[in-house]
Amino acid sequence: VRASRREAGECRRQLQARLVEMESLRGAHQSLERQLQELEERHNAEAAGLQDTIGQLEDDLRNTKNEMARHLREYQDLLNVKMALDIEIAAYRKLLEGEETLFNMGSGGLPSLNSLPSPTYSFQPRSFSSST
């Protein structure tokens, strides 16, 4: 009977130790679950922040592309205007050189300018339309 009582007491102590260990492990488990939940919430918040940043960067990129396209159109328009002005300047230069040649010929021993047929110029300035 004494041996059985000692064995029962030993079993109770072991049971008590196992219950304490089990409660300790439950507390550790709950603590780890909370940490996991906090990590998931932080991760989700960080992912949402990164998604917002990506959206803003995509908007910025789209706006920059649109602005670049607008600048390119403006540059092409200005280039077309420059080309038209260069053509017009060349035409006027040619007209002036022709007038200068006629003037030099007239004062270089020709009887008079009235005897030369008067030149007729038909310069039509071109209008360039931009392709926008």
Automatic annotation (TrEMBL):
InterPro entries: IF_conserved, IF_rod_dom, Intermediate_filament. One of its GO terms (molecular function) is structural constituent of postsynaptic intermediate filament cytoskeleton. Residues 120-132 have a biased composition (Polar residues). It holds the Pfam family Filament. GO terms for cellular component: cytoplasm; intermediate filament; postsynaptic intermediate filament cytoskeleton. Residues 1-103 form the IF rod domain. Residues 106-132 are annotated as: Disordered. Keywords: Coiled coil, Intermediate filament. Residues 22-81 form a coiled coil. Belongs to the intermediate filament family. This is AINX protein. It comes from Hippolais icterina (icterine warbler). The lineage of its organism: Eukaryota, Metazoa, Chordata, Craniata, Vertebrata. The gene is Ina_0.
